[in-house]
Structure prediction request, 187 residues.
Amino acid sequence: MPKRPWRCYRELTKRAYVKKQKKTKKMRRLYVKGVPDPKIRIFTMGKRNPEFDYVVKLTINEIGNINNLSLEAARIASNRYLRKNLGTSNYYLKILLYPFHVIREHKMMTFAGADRLQDGMRRAFGKPCGTAVRIRKIPKDIMLVKVKKQNLEIAKEALRRAKHKFPLKSSISILTSEEYKQAGGVF
Prediction:
């Protein structure tokens, strides 16, 4: 069966549905079973260097859910552009959020004539089919790139390419390393 379009899950509904564990005397008990692992595995790329002058941040400005697939696509797009133009030692890219929220889907047949074969249930709970990042407080930083002054335009272009992968409105902001440290960021 094909995947549903993300507009079905983009809005926040009720509270987060996450994997919960309860430790008993004999074992750990999982309450949400069958959750697929998130597609994104790598959260930091490049070289961590304290001599970088600027921090370029991608900030989400809308409330909603972001799929783990779009997070991975944004990481690949920005990292590929940075690695091609700067090499691996002239930047530091970091993904700041982890997809904890479990997305559920009520499996239904979606081909022509399926209404004669299947009626389905109304308000069905569904089975886990993926994970997502929940954005509840805005603005929320989702990615950052640390570069030197001469590479600032390349970092902005890399985050612009990543920005197109997200379903929510976002913006790019530039901070110096001193402003970033004063704002509470760890350099």
Q: What stands out?
A: The chain has four helices and ten strands.
